[in-house]
User: Fold this.
Amino acid sequence: MTLNGIGLVAALATFFGVWIGHVTVRKVEYHAPNLRGPMLIALIIGVTLEVVALSSDSLYVSGACGILGMTALFDALEFRRQFKRVKKGHAQANPSNPRHAPLLANGQATTIDLLKREPTGQVITYKEQAA
Amino acid sequence: MNFFGLALGIATLFIIGLGFIWVIRGEYHFGYLWWPYVMGLGFALIVVSLFLTTAWLSALLGVFGASLVWGSTELKEQAVRAEIGWYRFNSRPKPQPPLVELIKRIKAPHL
Assistant:
C-alpha cells in the first residue's frame, strides 16, 4: 500500500505556518515603531505564495504554499489585532516603542506578561496578577 | 491554474477559526488538563491521513489534525485567560481526564 503524504505536508504547513506567524507577529509588533511595513511584507509574502500555489502542478507544492500564503495574509491583519491587545493590556507593551510609550504613560497598557504563569483553578485578582 | 492550494488555504483559515472556538469552549467545560488527549488525537488524525487515497480528504484531515495539535498547546493559556477575567470562568468542577495525576506532573506545552 502506498502512503499518501499530502495530509502530512498540509499538517506540517498548518502547524509551522501558525507557529511562525504567532511568534513573528508578537515579536515584530513589540519592536516595530510602525506597523505598515511589516503588514505590507506579510501581504507580499502571502500573495506570492498564493501565486506559486496557483501555478504549481504539484499538489504538494500547491497545498503547502496555499496554506502558508493564507496564514501570512492572516498575519498581515494580526499585526493590528495584536496592537489592540496591547492597548487593552492583554499583551505586553514595550516602553521603548513610540506606539506603546503613550499607552503606558496613560496607564492603559502594561509591561507585564499576564499570561506567563501556570493555571491555578481559581479566579485571580488584579493585585495577584501584577505580583 | 491549480486551485488546490488556494482552496486548501481558505479551508485552513476556517479550520483554524474553528480552533479558536473549540479551545475556548473545551477549556470552559473540560479544563486544560485534557491537552495530551487532544494532542494525541491530532497526531492520530495526521497518521490516518496517510492512508486516505483522496488528496482532498487527506489534506483536510492533516490540517484538522495539525489544528488539534496546535490547539492542545493553547489550552493552558486559555485557562489563564479565564482565571484573569478575559474570558468567562467556569467555577464548577470539571471532569478529570484519565491519568490526571501523571498529566499534572508534566508541564503543559505552550508555543
Chain B is about 70% helix and 0% strand. Chain B touches chain A through 46 residues (CB under 8 Å). Chain B has one domain: 21-105.
